[in-house]
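Summary for the steering committee. The consortium agreed at its last meeting that each partner would contribute one worked example illustrating the joint modelling workflow. Our contribution is presented below. We chose a case with several input lines so that the handling of multiple components could be demonstrated. No manual editing was applied between input and output; the record is shown as generated.
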Amino acid sequence: MSESEPTDERPANAGAGTDTNEKRNATTDTDTGTDGTEGTSKEETAAATDDRGARSAAETAQMDAAESLLAVRDLDAGYSDLRILYDVFLDVADGEYVTIVGPNGAGKSTVMKSVFGLTTYMGGSITFAGTDITGRSPEDIIHRGIGYVPQNDNVFTSLSVAENLAMGAYILEDVPEEALREVYERFPILDERREQKAGTMSGGQRQMLAMGRALMLEPDLLLLDEPSAGLAPDLVEEMFDKIDEINEAGTAILMVEQNAKEALRRCDRGYVFVQGHNRFVDSGQALLEDEEVRREFLGG
Amino acid sequence: MGIADTYSDSRRFVVARPFALVVGLLVVLLAVDFVSGLATGRIAVSDVATLVWDGLMQGLVVGLAGIGLSMTYSILNFANFAHGDYITGGAFSGWAVTYLLAGLGRADVGSLLLVGAGGSVFGGALGIGITATPIAVLGGLVFAGLFTVILALVIDRLVYRSMRDQGGISLLIASVGIAFALRYLIAFVFTTENRGVTDAGGVPEIQGYLLDGYVAISAHDATLLVVAVGLMLGVHFLLQRTKLGTAMRAMADNEDLARVTGIPTERVVRATWVIGGALTGVAGYMFVLWKGTIGFNDGWLLLLLVFAAVILGGIGSVYGAILGGLVIGLTSSMSVLWIPSDFARAAAFFVMILVLLFRPEGLFEGRSTA
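What follows is the complete predicted structure of the assembly.
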């Protein structure tokens, strides 16, 4: 991990103001190990310490980075001029179920979008199955075995269920019969409504359709952005069960979730992000039991 | 609901939408006048049939030309004002080939390729018509489509592509510039003179007696009907039954999602220009075959009606463009029963405004190619 590159040498972002400075200070503290000497407030010092804590855990995790299916290193990214992510790292092993949790604006979705090449790249690396995929087109990334389910507007509303699924396999010559059958088996509701327009379906059904579409290419890694957002409570449970099933069938999952407790209960490993920085990383269970994580991010 | 409620409901309607009431009365008045005119013989049934047929033909041309405009709008998110001059470009390129095929050996190649610019050679003298020179007409038709595809792709590559993420207004303004450049390039090459291109007297027609007079359908009407309906069915098949068509609908629906789904959006854009361009070129050629004259302003003037049709149908909807074309064609044709034919276009626009007042999103709720 190339920590030698100090963050504060990069130009400050327009509009980010003091907020950015604060964050940069926190990172610098960690980088240099001068525990909070530059920080002036108690909060900053605390943040810096925690950041370092996260790193040491991550460094352990990175020992076997060669085995990672997805490896994000020192990623800086954002949207045009606005920087959102600061030296973010993240690993997903083959078949692993990883969740990213954290407060609003932590950059959770941005990490995911960055993997898919949908943000402005500002530094660092993203490797998938040993290949650097930074700056590749979504089409190419899909080809390599990553599926992505965005949070909003994730189905083609004017297309039927069957057409939506067929579009999921656009890069293939023909619709893969086997994969299609599996999707219909996994989500029987889609089978029943093949000809229905996606726009007339409920939120939960759309979410299933969006997942089904991403599964059409049988990806090695599935990126799920807030799969439970906007779903009725009884559907949330069902959705998480489906994700478990997909994971058990061998697909690695990288999921961003607001429903942090449930997500951490189910995943193998969890990352806590705060303001575009890594804060904690550990097994889902350990994070759930961690006093600080509970108090700050899981509402006690 | 009591009588008092009904009364106040209708009263509220009158107060809230006085304009609707006026329009309703106008429609009733025209309908009454129309029926009484037919009953008293003031309006001849055969004349009405002729007008309906004529309107239908005009509607097919407008609808066919509108498909391309609607397609590019829904997928590229901008209104291409150069579309009218794509129509003209297609027409001239196609007719140059038709002249060449029909008149080779009888006139010099230069005059033929310039579609008889400056009165050097006349289409009538060459005896051009679908029955007399079918190969020349079909050859010209195909070439018009091909040429317009190339024209559309070249302009996209040179101008629109580099502006793709700059928003609809910049693209629209650029397209106005392209429209002028193309139109005057065409005028420069082919001259500004309006000229006849078909052997109007030599086109066979079927006449049918209808109650009080004859209704004629010419071979060129029939050709237009076959070509336009055939292409419209073809577009329907493409959009609904093929992978490319589904991808086009997907992209019109949600471009960002199309991209993360792995649909090669730039390739779909190119396919859109190919299909839209071909239809536009063919529409231009057929328009000229049907009316029998060609001029450098044809497409530009037609564009107003095409826009009216596309907006009426719901901009972005291919089916809306077809239906809108027919409504516009029939309206401008039928309006001559009441107003001088010079105002026929105005009538078409009036109907467009009326429809939009009651259905602002257009007949087919635009922006979905489906």
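Confidence is low (pLDDT under 50) at residues 1-63 of chain A. Residues 7-145+219-297 of chain A form a domain with the Rossmann fold fold (CATH 3.40.50.300).
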